[in-house]
Design goal:
The structure is a single chain. The chain is mainly β. Helices cover 10% and strands 34% of the residues. The longest helix is centred in the last third of the chain and has 21 residues. Belongs to the APC10 family. It comes from Aduncisulcus paluster.
Length: 201
């Protein structure tokens, strides 16, 4: 089922800032910047017959909750009718979804992502327009991440930073770089047959 929400009710705070490695199309590439400028008065318009394709590749793979497409019913037969969205995971596995007709609605079409793995690419294919139109117009696109993923990414970055700092302070003997150096103080010596509290190997 395809869900619609009006632009005024869309919270852009939960949207992934589109840091892209690639944004391309099979036609009319000059106005592609309009897809991510958050300006609903501008638009990308194709100049070929259907299907029209937009290709999105992220700078890094992300967990996608939903993909959003903004269209306007004021565009008449330029307004997309049937969409096909393909989510490509890392490793090349693809998940294609064909939502219901976009009808004559002003606003955002919300297309849930069927995969719960990181997504590397998204392909938006416009299969047909309303009233048999050839060229099409798309006002904006947006991507929503799974809730909590941003916080989890920050946590992982913090843990990696701590691990890197920890490795810097471990004596090289522990890492086996120089066997001639003295034993690190972390290794407790046995005294009078009493086992040490801890040892580092």
């Amino acid at each position: 089922m395809l869900e619609f929400i009006s632009f005024s009710s869309l919270s852009l705070s939960s949207m992934y800032p589109l840091s892209l490695d690639e944004l391309s199309a099979n036609s009319s590439t000059g106005s592609l910047g309009s897809l991510i400028d958050s300006n609903q008065s501008s638009y990308w318009q194709s100049n070929l017959s259907c299907p029209h394709k937009i290709f999105i590749k992220f700078s890094r793979p992300i967990f996608v909750k939903s993909f959003y497409v903004h269209t306007s019913n004021g565009d008449g037969n330029y307004q997309p009718d049937r969409l096909k969205i393909t989510f490509s995971e890392e490793g090349g596995v693809e998940h294609a979804t064909t939502p219901d007709s976009t009808a004559r609605n002003d606003g955002w079409s919300v297309i849930p992502c069927p995969s719960r793995r990181k997504i590397e690419r998204i392909e938006l294919s416009i299969e047909s327009n309303h009233d048999g139109g050839c060229d099409c117009r798309v006002r904006n696109i947006a991507v929503e991440q799974l809730k909590g993923v941003l916080e989890e990414d920050k946590k992982q970055i913090h843990l990696k930073s701590l691990a890197k700092d920890f490795l810097k302070i471990i004596p090289s003997v522990i890492l086996g770089k120089d066997e001639k150096e003295e034993k690190p103080q972390l290794i407790a010596e046995e005294k009078e047959g009493i086992p040490p509290d801890c040892s580092v190997k």
